[in-house]
Design brief:
The complex is a heterodimer of chains A (913) and B (111).
Chain A (H helix, E strand, L loop, with lengths): L2 H13 L1 H25 L4 H12 L2 H11 L3 H5 L4 H13 L1 H29 L11 E8 L4 E3 L3 H10 L3 E9 L2 E4 L5 E4 L1 E4 L2 H6 L5 E2 L14 E4 L1 H8 L9 E4 L2 E8 L12 E4 L16 E6 L5 H18 L1 H4 L2 E7 L7 H35 L1 H9 L4 H42 L12 H26 L3 H7 L11 H33 L9 E8 L8 H20 L4 E7 L10 E5 L12 E8 L3 H5 L5 E2 L13 E5 H7 L9 E5 L28 E7 L12 E5 L8 E7 L3 H15 L3 E8 H44 L1 H9 L4 H34 L2 H5 L1 H35 L3 H6 L2
Helix pairs in contact in A: 2-3, 2-4, 6-15, 7-13, 7-15, 7-16, 7-23, 13-16, 13-18, 13-23, 14-17, 15-16, 15-23, 18-23, 18-25, 18-27, 19-22, 23-27, 25-27
Chain B lengths: L2 E2 L4 H11 L3 E2 H11 L4 E2 L5 H10 L3 E7 L5 E7 L1 H26 L6
Parallel strand pairs in B: 1-3
Antiparallel strand pairs in B: 2-5, 4-5
Helix pairs in contact in B: 1-2, 1-4
The chains are: A alpha+beta (913), B alpha+beta (111).
């Protein structure tokens, strides 16, 4: 007999129960009629023949059931959910509110994490463009096979692609040009501006909210300069004024007229909010020259990606033959528009990281299963009676599964809602840190995530329903005979012990990690710079490149001159007490390099050198910040000379590298950084100066010691200050010390910058305090997450221990009664009850402590890794202390069951039997 | 007087019947009656679970058609795995029957 035919017949039976049954009924009816017809031919009356034929046939219902069984459908038929099961499930939720709350909370948390992470990974690995026909949008690009990267200087090729390709349409180009949007009143702020072919709007199939989008005629060289703005620019800069169309503004140095406003959420091509026509003439540039551009298109209706790939490859070959000197190694490609740039292997790795979270879901489910099992065990009597009344084991399991499904479904709904909110929150957080994300990342949950959640929910229900049910219904027939109140046959096996131990271990790990991360946050919060951060306004300064900047050096020279003027003009403002410039902002991440000391000690943790951060600061940096040096001298103008080697180090540097002894006059130098994950990092010590001829740089003389001013590198606070090389440093951060209200200064800074040079772009002007708060937000995001996980682990541990102890007491009622009757003391009873849970918790704590040690080393928690033996002891102490707390919690969970055990009267216990 | 058939032989009889030509359920019943010379009795409805079992195993296959007297009926046909199975079962049955016959024909002198 073939497996295929079995599967086919089973499938058809499963697919349409009604159809299969009707088929049988029809067939039986045909049989009876054929038989009756025969009987009529033998001389019977039709009625009599029909009656006899039916009689001879027998019971159709019986044969129908046998028929289904013969088709292998019996097992399926027995899995029948009734509304009653679900009703009972809801009733159970109400009857055990604490269990419902604990289990529901735990499961929604697990599903929240599971589904949320899946959605994020799915969006990263498999992005989809949320535009009409988004799946047909493509990017055209030149791939340099020699350099193994994308070559964006494709202006000439763009013209060829646009003219010759037949499998794609609406071919257009764009390039990002950062500019200030300057209003008539002089207010200037950067916008995410792009020069884009008009076909981009047709490609996106999105009409303008007000006015019009760009059109082809805007691209003519003599056409008026027009601008389409995004919804957020319209709201923030124009107060959502409906009369904005026709208004004239400046974009950098160019006067433009606003002709349209795009609807909310529109950010094509990536994350943009201002669009101007793409006017570059490809014929002005030779092949592989001109500015970098990106090219988009849409597959023509009916043509497939592989058709377009073939066509562009053929075209590419022709161009390569015509211009081998530039195009020998270039292979034009067509790729899906939002294709992830991750290599396949990385995508797989990311996707498989979900498996870890499935494990988390399973771990949580196992705990909930424990609770459900304890509940099911208290219902043992009910289950035994149901079984005595004829319910099969399968039926009882289905009932308990339905109950778990009700709980799981409610938890899944809550978890999904939380996942959606969490992703919104996370996106905001990431945008705050990394800038705007491409428009195709959004917080709506995708269909695959919903499907994944359904699978997770079924998994959860199976784990929390079927597993305890299977255990509690084992050998029902046997227990029917010996059912007794105090001595049921259900016992906790080794698997539950493992779950509880694992649980306690996790409970130790998460709060410990949360504690150390929390300590880092507190450190940042309490970081005393010795200055008042609310007095300072800081901003990043960049500049538009214009045609007059013939070379990079010319651009830097112009930037240097203009920024010096800006510094003077800001100084002249009333209420400004000082202006200085640096390439880093105190208390934000500085990056790190490794240094060695001439005749100094080698650090404990690295054979290469001490890990320290560095910053380039203006000569008056310490004066303006109002933080006099602790020793030595500040920079003077002679330190700017190319051959000067003066540096100032901070106090943590002195403590770490020189052991707190005098540093003035000592020499230090950068060494090649040690391999990171096996990859030797190319040395870029003293960023942007590029004065280092060899892997190990020149020696620097320490001329001063500053206080700790927030040179954060991830390896402590030791830092080195170099004099900033004006004319080489781009971009820079400005620090304006104010006497009055710094927030009032922000608008003024923008307008001064715009008048000094309209090509200046001022980024994120805010007080020094807000800068740090922004950074803290990100830390706090992780901290909140960790705390939530910790609370969850603690709650589950409590619940698990409670369930086991409570169940153990109820199972041992008779034994305890007998012990009391034989004269056992309360202490002996307590010992008997607590021995097992206490042992489990102790083992869990030991494993958890070991894990915490390993984990903190692996994820790089400052406190544990860096601070030497004392700090290590403190850390171990914290974990141990936490272990003691856990033991206390365990005892707490045991209190109620123990009191119940102690109150057992021998007579009651024995009577209950 | 017809005998009730031995357990396990119904499947073989059905396979044999449909091996002689396409038949509907009632036709299978008549054919068994015919080829056994009216010696075997099958409860009519009991035929169907057996038919479904054989179909589930892929030994026969079915399709709806029209009977001689223009009644819509479901017809069964032997598949090639069914034909193979029929051969095996027939051989096995014959061996058993011969062994039984030999055993039952044994006289005291032959012992």
């Amino acid at each position: 007999m073939s497996l295929r035919s079995r599967f086919r017949s089973l499938w058809s039976g499963l697919r349409s129960r009604r159809f299969v049954e009707q088929d049988m009924i029809d067939e039986f009816a045909a049989h009876v009629e054929l038989r009756a017809a025969d009987l009529v031919r033998q001389g019977m009356t039709p009625d009599e023949a029909m009656r006899l034929a039916r009689l001879e046939f027998g019971s159709p219902e019986q044969f129908r059931d046998e028929g289904r069984a013969a088709r292998g459908l019996r097992h399926v038929d027995e899995i029948r959910f009734s509304w009653l099961d679900f009703k009972l499930g809801f009733r159970m939720l109400a009857k055990y509110p604490v269990l419902t709350l604990v289990a529901g909370f735990a499961l929604s948390f697990a599903i929240w994490v599971g589904a949320g992470a899946f959605e994020v990974v799915y969006q990263v690995v498999n992005p989809t463009v949320p535009l009409p026909d988004g799946e047909r949008l493509v990017t055209l690009r030149n791939w340099d096979v020699a350099a193994n990267n994308d070559d964006p200087r494709a202006l000439r090729d763009f013209a060829d692609w646009k003219k010759q390709l037949k499998t794609v349409e609406e071919v257009g180009a764009w390039r990002r040009v950062d500019r200030n949007l300057v209003l008539a009143d002089g207010r200037a702020e950067p916008v995410r501006h792009v020069e884009m072919s008009a076909s981009g709007f047709r490609l996106a199939r999105t009409p303008a909210l007000l006015g019009r989008t760009l059109i082809e005629s805007d691209e003519a060289p003599d056409a008026p300069d027009v601008l389409v703005i995004g919804h957020d620019v319209w709201q923030a800069r124009f107060g959502a004024d409906s009369g904005v169309i026709g208004r004239r503004v400046r974009l950098g140095g160019t006067a433009v007229e606003i002709v349209g406003v795009m609807p909310e959420g529109f950010a094509f091509p990536v994350a943009h909010n201002a669009w101007r026509p793409f006017r570059m003439d490809p014929l002005d540039h030779a092949r592989r020259e001109g500015p970098p551009i990106s090219v988009f298109a849409r597959l023509v209706e009916g043509s497939r990606l592989k058709d377009a790939r073939l066509e562009i490859a053929l075209l590419g070959q022709r161009i390569a033959i015509e211009s081998p000197e530039t195009h020998e190694h270039l292979r034009p490609q067509v790729v899906p528009y939002a294709q992830s740039d991750l290599p396949t292997l990385a995508s797989l790795a990311l996707l498989s990281s979900n498996l870890l979270l499935v494990l988390l879901v399973l771990l949580v489910s196992a705990n909930v299963a424990l609770l459900m099992f304890a509940r099911a065990a208290t219902r043992e009597g009910e289950i035994v009676i149901r079984s005595a009344l004829g319910a099969s084991r399968r039926r009882v399991v289905i009932q308990l599964f339905s109950e778990a499904l009700v709980l799981g479904a409610l938890a899944a709904a809550a978890g999904l809602a939380a996942a959606s909110a969490g992703i919104r929150w996370g996106l905001r957080m990431v945008q705050g840190e990394l800038g705007d994300l491409p428009f195709w990342f959004d917080s709506t949950l995708s269909a695959p995530t919903l499907a994944y959640t359904v699978v997770l929910t079924l998994l959860v229900a199976a784990m929390t329903g079927i597993l305890p049910a299977m255990k509690v219904t084992r050998d029902l027939a046997g227990r029917l005979k010996e059912a007794s109140a105090g001595g049921g046959g259900v016992r906790f096996g080794g698997i539950w012990t493992v779950i509880i131990v694992a649980q306690v271990a996790v409970t130790v790990v998460f709060p410990s990690v949360a504690f150390f991360v929390g300590r880092d946050v507190v450190k940042i919060e309490e970081y005393d710079l010795g200055l008042d951060p609310t007095e300072f306004v800081t901003f990043g300064l960049q500049m538009d490149r214009v045609e007059a900047d013939s070379s990079n050096d010319a651009f830097l020279a112009r930037f240097s001159r203009a920024s010096a003027t800006l510094e003077e003009r800001l100084m002249a403002l009333p209420g400004v007490r000082g202006v200085t410039v640096a390439n880093r902002v105190p208390r934000l991440y500085h990056g790190w390099n490794q240094v060695e000391v001439d005749g100094g000690v080698v650090p404990q943790d690295s054979s290469r050198g001490h890990r320290v951060s560095s910053a380039n600061v203006d000569l008056d940096y310490f004066d303006v910040l109002g933080t006099p040096l602790l020793a030595g001298r500040v920079f003077h103008s002679g330190d700017r000379d190319a051959d000067s080697r003066s540096v100032i180090v901070n106090q943590p540097f002195v403590d770490m590298v020189f052991g707190g002894r005098n540093a003035i006059g000592r020499r230090i130098r950068y060494v090649a950084r040690e391999p990171y994950n096996g990859v030797d990092v190319v040395l870029r010590a003293q960023p942007s100066l590029n004065r280092l001829p060899s892997p190990d740089g020149p020696w620097y003389d320490v001329v001063g010691v500053a206080r700790d001013l927030g040179t954060v590198s991830g390896y402590g606070r030791a830092g080195i200050y170099h004099p900033i090389a004006r004319g080489l440093q781009y971009p820079v951060s400005f620090f304006v010390r104010t006497a009055g209200r710094p927030d009032a200064m922000i608008a003024e800074i923008r307008s001064v910058a715009a008048t000094v040079d309209p090509t200046f772009r001022v980024y994120r002007p805010m007080t020094l305090e807000d800068v740090v708060n922004d950074d803290l937000d990100f830390y706090n995001f992780w901290l909140t997450l960790l705390r939530a996980v910790s609370a969850m682990a603690l709650l589950l541990s409590l619940a698990g221990i409670y369930a086991v102890t409570s169940y153990a007491v109820s199972r041992r009622t008779r034994e305890i009664g007998v012990r009391v009757a034989l004269g056992a003391s309360p202490l002996q009873i307590i010992t008997a009850i607590l021995r097992r849970p206490l042992l489990q918790v102790c083992v869990g704590i030991v494993i958890g402590t070991i894990l915490t040690g390993g984990l903190s080393g692996a994820i790089g928690i400052d406190a544990v890794r860096q601070r030497g033996a004392v700090s290590m002891l403190v850390s171990v102490g914290v974990v141990m202390l936490y272990g003691v707390v856990m033991l206390g919690v365990c005892l707490l969970a045991c209190i109620v069951p123990t009191r119940r055990a102690l109150s057992i009267q021998p007579t009651d216990a024995l009577r209950a039997d | 007087m017809a005998d009730p058939i031995l357990p396990g032989t119904l499947d073989l009889l059905i396979l044999k019947s449909v091996s002689l030509g396409r038949l509907h359920g009632y036709g299978v019943l008549l054919r068994i009656e015919q080829i056994s010379g009216g010696a075997l009795l099958i409860q009519q409805g009991a035929l169907y679970p057996a038919l479904y079992r054989l179909e589930h195993q892929g030994l026969i296959e079915s399709e709806w058609g029209t009977s001689d007297n223009n009644r819509r009926a479901k017809f069964y046909r032997l598949t090639s795995p069914g034909r193979k199975r029929l051969g095996e079962e027939t051989a096995s049955w014959n061996r058993l029957a011969q062994a039984m016959a030999r055993s039952l024909a044994t006289t005291p002198q032959e012992v």
